[in-house]
Amino acid sequence: MIDLRSLEIFYWVATLESFGRAAERLYTTQPAVSQRVAGLETELGHRLFERSGRSIHLTPKGRHLLGYAERLLRLHTEMVQTIAAGEQLGGVVRLGVAETIVQTWLSDFIEQVNTRHPTVTFEIEVAITPDLKQALLRQEMDLAFVTGPLSEPELMDLELISYPIRFLAGRRTRFEEEPVPPEALRRHPLITFPKNTVNHRDLRQAFQALGLGAPRIHASASLATMIRMAVDGIGIAAIPPVVAQNEIARGELRLIETPLRLPLARFTASYRPAPDAVLVPKLAGIAVSVAHAYAQQHGFI
Length: 301
Known about the structure:
alpha/beta; Arc Repressor Mutant, subunit A; D-Maltodextrin-Binding Protein, domain 2; 3 domains; 12 strands; DNA-binding transcription factor activity; LysR_subst-bd; WH-like_DNA-bd_sf
């Protein structure tokens, strides 16, 4: 008799097109995955995968079974959500996080999860959004808090929070007048996120839209590095002021008044929906609540 675990393994092998990656996704071994698939093929009397070298593809019977497997797994997930509503969930979650979130409300999120689901553990990777997006698409990440929306058909994006982006300068950086005209800002090196990020693009386009041409930009994936460079007078940082509250309070950095306005940095909780997913959507919902509470506390809403 076909059991649900075998269908789950078949679904992930078919989705990831790899026995090895399915084994990693399900925290089991590749021989165990191969054995389950072979058992399914024996029980059904049909080959489910065509194997060509290191690649695999579904046979017509396999494609037919995939539709049934997805529906059964989704029905099982709905049953668990209904019957076990309010109960604790557990497991290991691969979480990708942009550093801005790390520096603001990530600890609040983990504390909330520890309270509601104490057997959940995280494997956390801090990286820029383009890298986290690729990890989600390759199914190497379960959930990510990123600059969004990612707007990929395979991914779900839930709105989290939007941070103002402002210009911050150290004590050594002087201007002849304030508010500082954009052309005066452009004469100084600017500091922001890497060039393959939305933030870098927005900064460059803000000056180009005024006919000033692209400014000189130092890029870094590290907020600590950007803040340190601004404090030392190397350039003017274009970052969310909330991540530099301590430096602003100590007078090491100050907000620059300028008519030039940059778009908000929008963040989403993004993940790949799956028919057997129960925990990740719940965690994304917790993240939305925590982010909204943080935004209200700091006047972002």
